Amino acid sequence: MTPNKLNLCMGCMNPLPEGEDKCRHCGYQKGMPHSLTYLSPGTILKERYLIGKVMEKNNEGAAYISYDQAEDKKVLIREFMPEQIAERNESNQYVRPKTGYERQYKTALSDFVELSRQLLALEKTSGMVPVLDRFVDNDTVYVVYRYVYALSLSAFLQRNGGELTWSQTKKMFLPLLNTLSQLHKKGIIHRGISPETIMVDQDNKLWLSGFCIADARTEGSDMGAELFDGYAAPEQYSLSNWQGTWTDVYSIAAVLYRVLTGTRPSDGNSRRISDDLCPANELNRKIPPNISDAIFAGMCVSSEKRIQSIDEFTGILLEEADSHTAVFESSKVNLEVKKKKQKQKKAHVAVWAMVVTFLILLGLMFWLLHKMGIFEKEENSRPTQSVSYLDDQSSDEGSVISADGVPDFIGKDIDVIKNDPSYANRFIFIEKEDFNEDYSKKIVYDQEPAKGTPMPNKGYVTLYVSKGSEMLAMPGLKGSTLEFATKILTENELKYEVVPTMDASAEPGLIIRTYPAEGEMVSKKTSTVYLYIKEENVTTSSTSDDMPSGIFRGPSVGVKRGDD
After folding, report:
1. Which of 553, 554, 512 minimizes the C-alpha distance to 534?
2. pLDDT tens string 6-62
3. Digit-coded pLDDT (tens) for 384-407
4. What pTM was computed for the model?
5. Distance between CA atoms of 342 and 330, rounded to whole angstroms?
6. Beta strands 528-534 and 495-501: pairing type?
7. Residue 293 Rama label (left phi>0; alpha psi -120 to 50; beta)
8. Three-state SS at 224
9. Selection from 505, 512, 510 nearest residue 481 by Cα
10. Beta-carbon-side half-sphere exposure of residue 288 (alpha carbons within 13 Å)
11. What angle do CA 386, 391, 396 make, to 5 degrees?
């Protein structure tokens, strides 16, 4: 079966109706520009796999939505392309190491090959996105994964009120914990477990995805690291620390913390300096104490004091509260939790002792003053006055802190929230910007934790802030100067590239044409605008047989914004 006969959309691999260029399912349009760092949509690999657009990328490489023409099904193909230490030859698509990084590239490629070999050799493991194939092309390695129809755990939680009960969580996560245990026994450490790499299908089954080599998950490597704040273990922030099964224990415990409390824990790197992690059941009283203790022990900053294996962690989770029986036998008692509780108990006793002492002294003082007749004199001289504490309270709704927990920030301006001292004194805000079609620019469209969640002072609150609509009608730039065109595109948050070209009839320095053309809808997130301009010094020696006729690659003067 050939790509032409299938006529598939390169954005989602669904069939396109005859004569249509724009997909009704995902909005992808034929001929949309793409980053030259990655493969062109429509590329065929191994005379079998049709490559579509990039679905996600990190420092290790990119994952493309693809189509297996031999099996007639969608697949996801991951390409080893670490852009920090490698580059692509535009003429033949080959991947090669950058000058000076040959040794690092060779080592990373070897690790990628070994990881893909381990994943491919696994017998059918429930709960892990299966690897179907592995092959070499373009002087690099490709891994073919099954395409799973699912959404991220993060998106799933947003659709379900921000958090789940322990009963719901237990049913969903026990199979995943078993999957992790099997992977560890095969010597595979994930290092990137988070709500973004755990997928939820229509049956509420969890799938583990996002496998990467160690260098792509460790701060300080030449490749650069993709670490998920709040879920990466403290040891992943240094090249000098050992990683192992305990690293994944930290991450899965952090995910459970997020699922049960609706709050993302503070990142592991910050906790190495100041550990202010609040036990889960202090944020949500419905969490059983033994579950909260297990999560706390799994998130211990010290890797040596932390629970060491997934089986042990699972065993503690399944222990009955106030009982010595467990489904799995735990090899050690959670000493860290007990020590913290003992310290808290001692602190509470000390505080109460101070309060009682103060009240006794205060009582003695008032008794002495009463004997001396001080109160009677003051009563006679004091004017009658009515005091209302409500008079001191602001009537501004934005300044009121909800006694029930985290306020509802959705629909409010981010600047108003940040400048409100009643919020600033109680919360630490984490801002995440993204495009949103329903909310105007700078307006909060989602939050974590959800409204009403109990939150101690200086708790972390993530606010998702709208950058406005992602789609924009392409402005008319034909005939304008390059300076004006780039200024307009930059103001509209559009990425661009300048393409010098030869056109005898054109005036030097002015835009001859643009792609997309004026009025066409472009995405601020994924589109790249190409500006065609006459360059007097362009000669025919600049051409390449591998490039389309009339287009000459020149140095890009555009500053790329956001992800390609």
Report:
1. 512
2. 789 999 999 988 888 889 888 899 888 888 899 999 999 999 999 999 999 999 999
3. 333 333 333 333 333 333 445 889
4. 0.60
5. 22
6. parallel
7. alpha
8. coil
9. 510
10. 15
11. 170
Sign of CA dihedral 88, 90, 92, 98: negative
Coil vs helix vs strand at 206: strand
Of 520, 515, 551, nearest to 535 (Cα)?
Answer: 551
Cα(416)–Cα(494) distance, integer angstroms: 27
The encoded tokens of residue 175 equal 């199979």
Instruction: Please report which confidence band the pLDDT of residue 100 belongs to, taking 50, 70 and 90 as the band edges.
Output: very high
Taking CA 528 as the corner, what is the angle to CA 155 and CA 225, rounded to the nearest 5 degrees?
A: 50
CA–CA separation, 123 and 400 (whole Å): 56
Spatial separation of the C-alpha atoms in residues 556 and 535, rounded to whole Å: 13
State how far Cα 514 lies from the chain centre. 34
Euclidean distance between the first and the last CA atom of the chain, given in angstroms as a whole number: 31
The DSSP symbol for 85 reads T
DSSP-assigned states of every residue in 439-483: S-TTBEEEEESPTT----TTEEEEEEEE---SEEEPP--TTSBHH
**Residue 307 is encoded by which pair of tokens?**
């629970």
Class of residue 10 by CB neighbours under 10 A (exposed 0-12, middle 13-18, buried 19+):
buried
Q: Dihedrals φ, ψ of 559, to 5°?
A: -95, 110
Query: Rounded to 5, what percent of the chain is helix, strand, coil?
Result: 30, 20, 50
Q: What is the DSSP string of 19-83?
A: T--B-TTT--BTT----TTSPPTT-EETTTEEEEEEEEE-SSEEEEEEEETTTTEEEEEEEE--T
The residues, ordered by sequence, that sit 6+ positions from 222 with a Cβ below 8 Å of its Cβ are 84, 85, 101, 104, 215
Residue bearing tokens 């879920």: 231
